[in-house]
Design brief:
This protein is mainly beta. It contains no helices and 3 strands. The protein has strands at about 5, 10-15, 50. A 3-stranded antiparallel beta sheet has the order 2-1-3, with no helix packed on it. The two termini are about 15 Å apart.
């Protein structure tokens, strides 16, 4: 699954891990995150993420 990186703080959203602190289960693709989901490290929204190919 495609990982996404925050362009502000470099947090990487890994869909295999999810974001359990925000109620996002492992296996949730970035595209299926709620529109109001925020970066757990800096609080920006989904539009500040881009695909990560690292």
């Amino acid at each position: 699954m495609q990982k996404y990186i925050c362009t502000i703080c470099d947090y990487i959203y890994d869909p295999e891990i999810g974001d359990e602190d925000s109620g996002i289960a492992p296996g949730t693709p970035f595209e299926e995150l709620p529109e109001d989901w925020e970066c757990p490290d800096c609080g920006v929204h989904k539009e500040d993420f881009e695909p990560y190919n690292g």
